[in-house]
Amino acid sequence: MFIGHLAPALAARALTDEAPKLGVLFLGAQLVDIAFFSFALVGIENFRISPGITAMSPLDLYDYPFTHSLLGSAIWAIGFAIVIGFAQRNLVAASWAGIVVISHWVLDWLTHRPDLTISGNGQTYGLGLWDYPLATIGVELGILGLAFWMYLRRTKGPVLPPIIMLAILLAMQAFAWFGPEPVSAGPGFLILGLMSFAIMICLGTWVSSTRWHRTTVGLGVASPPP
Questions:
Q1: Which residues of 34-157 form beta strands (DSSP E)?
Q2: pTM for the full predicted model
Q3: 3-state helix, strand, coil in the chain (%, to 5)
Q4: Beta-ladder partners of 124
């Protein structure tokens, strides 16, 4: 799962204007992966490239208890919710922020081979959708497309920025699916991943600055509130 992780962020912002802005929610959606890539850079968590380990991804994610165990993901979700709650003084915003973060584990559970844990060790979980390319592509594009449609329906503003965002996200996903497989689990791959997450967050921030929620202002308002 890559851009599919952004679907809960788009859906949350579509459902209520009390949810954080889209850029913040994109950060939450990828927070555990950002932490994992950062931890891997300094050797706190580890992975390796194992071609053929799944049909869609060569990543052998054998050591990431602090970010991708259910307990670890929940701690990141609670921490992010606390930060948003204090920053926005809004319990609803904090709740949606936490939900978006924990959604990452659920979506990974759908796609990963059994490499996810509850508390960092013991039984591993994962439905293994990555071994079924057509199903993986259909699920990822399907949930993102539905959430994107919800976001457009529930917000108002110029349509071009979100369309540009979607096109860039799809191009990034196409490269991940059909581009050359990584040959090394070194810093270059990790930094490229972190740059990809930064691009997503910037796109979400930009699009959010051009649109506003339909429940916040009347339909006759021609421009976003300052």
A1: 46-49, 59-63, 116-117, 124-125, 155-156
A2: 0.93
A3: 65, 10, 30
A4: 117
